[in-house]
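anyone else get weird line breaks when pasting these?? whatever heres mine. first is seq + tokens for prot A
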Amino acid sequence: QVQLVESGGGLVQPGGSLRLSCAASGSISSIGDMGWYRQAPGKQRELVAAITSGGSANYADSVKGRFTISRDNAKNTAYLQMNSLKSEDTAVYYCNANIRNSYLWRNYWGQGTQVTVSS
């Protein structure tokens, strides 16, 4: 019923920028925390950035000052603006969200979008 769909990934040169989007759809009463995770080859999935329903954001140290997470509650969408990209940012990026339907909170994952930073 509820789905998260990421978009905006692709190939970019070092120093470039990308903007990822995560749109939630389905039977949604409210959306709590949302976050972006990434997983590089041979590494564990890690939290990149998270944002509360009220707009408070937290970032991994590796992306502070370069990435910005935001959300549009009216559109049920979260964004990740990625600037000054580095090769080590190459990974599959996943959206995550806590979503409540009529009475129950559940955690959801998107399918992921590939971000490749290479010259």
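and prot B, same format (seq, then tokens)
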Amino acid sequence: QVQLAESGGGLVQAGGSLRLSCAASGGIFSSYCMAWFRQAPGKEREFVTAISWSGSNTRYADSVKGRFTISRDNAKKMVYLQMHSLKPEDTAVYYCAADTDFYKVTVAASYWGQGTQVTVSS
């Protein structure tokens, strides 16, 4: 069992940047693959990005490639999402997720955070 808590969301103008953070507790952080998802009102939850145990393997949704970067610090038990060139269509609640399997964390992760709101204005 692992608990996840996101932070760093807020309101930004289009073209701006934000860094989201996810703090893990209650488990061995380095045993988990980590991911970020997002969900806008009236839309399905959408995969954003994932990172493997070691950080050597990453995956990004086409919609965020070149703009978002996922990273992790196993010593601090943290995962980050650096977002640049934000667009209004990036507006959503962003969720941190964890699983021991890299594929599973991209489609049906076992553990989820509470979410943090990101709003991008024109």
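btw re prot B: The helical segments are 102-107. Residues 102-107 form the longest helix (6 residues).
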